[in-house]
Amino acid sequence: MLEQRYRWKNKHLREHVSVLDGKRSPTILLKNARYLNQTFRKWMTANIWIYNDRIVYVGDMLPEKTNNCEVVDCTGLLLVPGYIEPHAHPFQLYNPHSFARYASQTGTTTLMNDNMVLALQLDKKKAFSFLKEMRDIPTTMYWWCRFDGQTEIQNEEQTFSHSNIKSWLEHDAVLQGGELTGWPKLLDGDDMMLHWIQETKRMRKQIEGHFPGASEKTLAKMMLFGADCDHEAMTGKEVYNRLMQGYTVSLRHSSIRPDLPVLLDEIKQLGIDQYDKFIFTTDGSSASFYEQGMIDHMIKMAIDKGVPIIDAYNMGTINVARYYNIEYLHGNIATGRIANINFLTDESNPTPVSVLAKGKWVKKNDELIDIYEGLDWNELGFEPLSLDWDLTMDDLQFSMPFGIKMENAVITKPYSVSIDVAYDQLDESHDESFFVLIDKDGKWKVNTLLKGFANKLSGLASSFSNTGDIILIGKNKKDIITAFNRMKEIGGGIVVSEGGEIVQEIGLPLKGVMSNDHVEDLIEKEKSLLHYLREKGYRFEDPIYSLLFFSSTHLPYIRITQQGIYDVMNKSVLFPTIMR
């Protein structure tokens, strides 16, 4: 599928060997490097030769030729492999390119990425062109292959057709199938999903689970079907159960599930002191969550909780590489590996002062070296959202007998509507708001009420959602329309209107679901929106995830989807969408 099936062509491998033969100079020589050697499980000192993007030697020797070589004396520094994020959702307002750039600054230089937005927003040819473009950035980008849309979508059999799934699974950049958000269908007899799992395993690729609250028996069944790892353990006991059934366990610390401190404490209480089957993930957190760091932050938390230092680093490096069968390329500093190296000042502080990604400096002496070249997003298929229809007051008519109540940031239940909704504005004495999911092509809509999101929010329009359809929330119909019109004008985004004025705006010009801002800039806009929503009554952890998961049927209990209002537990549409 990729134009270059092998990472290095034969001529490149000959060049690598010629460096050792003294016929060619390394591009970087790291002298006197005290580095983490995971074979011996200790810190050792060596000279590390790098040629372009590859480590070509680690040991006592020095190269014969250094005429085209940058020589770096590493005395006083500690070197560890670049960190690996095994479960990235690189579309949480940021985009894969901006996220990779930002993550590299704290040492995470390899990402295993969700392909959901690519599968839903682009045709296969465009999606694979994008993967090819991502191959050339300093961060190493791998991908998943989703088997379902994580919601009830129209024409799912076309988007997730056997032909599409097969092509994704065969792609060289795809390392796993899943995550298995549709696993209840698998248990109910979905043999096509089981076939895709079988194909994934035949290709020696991994299957990522998604099993929140799963019983021991369910975990065992899913292991028999082919699951390899799960990131949904929320207690030490759930970690234990997954280990007992043979899983690799991805310990999570994210914006809606900041669980790592509790997990590490409870693991220790259960007497678990072997860490080879553990890896770390931040599970696609919102941009502002990453101000504190990424995998480096999780390694630091593990060290502070008493995890042996080498085990803590291994959980963010070689454990991941071994799990994905890519240890020959990633996860350790050794001959033949891709030159992803983090430079530390202290073994107990995993945040690097300098970072090499594919043998290029992306950070040096605490300074950003920005070599992540901009992309032509339109050419790649990520043009601004274009809506050729208008939202009117006729679209904002509400008569449904029950609404949707938020239990927390992502769990929603039904409730009986008792207020009179025959007005253009709802009272601020309660926390019920008008709530609409409307087709981005303007063909259908679902109108209900939303309880618990806010009590003073006048009008919000968002093209950021699970499927890229439009979410409308607010007390005032005119402000909802004002927010929608501004969102339409800027080609997609999250927009809030109050008193006829735009008071908050995050532009998402990439298909209406992603920003083209640097993550640093996006963080400030996201924090401003969160502060505003909190003032208007939002009381949960993460409004960005609330918007994303309103349609997500991998969570209980009631969801608003392209098919209508959907009962997750009974797998049925309670109220279908209405054609406009």
Automatic annotation (TrEMBL):
Annotated EC: 3.5.4.2
Record flagged with keyword Chloroplast: no
Domain Adenine deaminase C-terminal: 410-571
UniProt-listed Pfam families: Adenine_deam_C (PF13382), Amidohydro_1 (PF01979)
Chemical reaction(s) catalysed: adenine + H2O + H(+) = hypoxanthine + NH4(+)
Keyword rRNA-binding belongs to the record: no
Amidohydrolase-related domain span: 79-362
Keywords: Hydrolase
PANTHER family in UniProt: ADENINE DEAMINASE YERA-RELATED (PTHR11113:SF6), N-ACETYLGLUCOSAMINE-6-PHOSPHATE DEACETYLASE (PTHR11113)
Family stated for the protein in its record: Belongs to the metallo-dependent hydrolases superfamily. Adenine deaminase family.
Protein name per its UniProtKB record: adenine deaminase
Lineage of source species: Bacteria, Bacillati, Bacillota, Bacilli, Bacillales
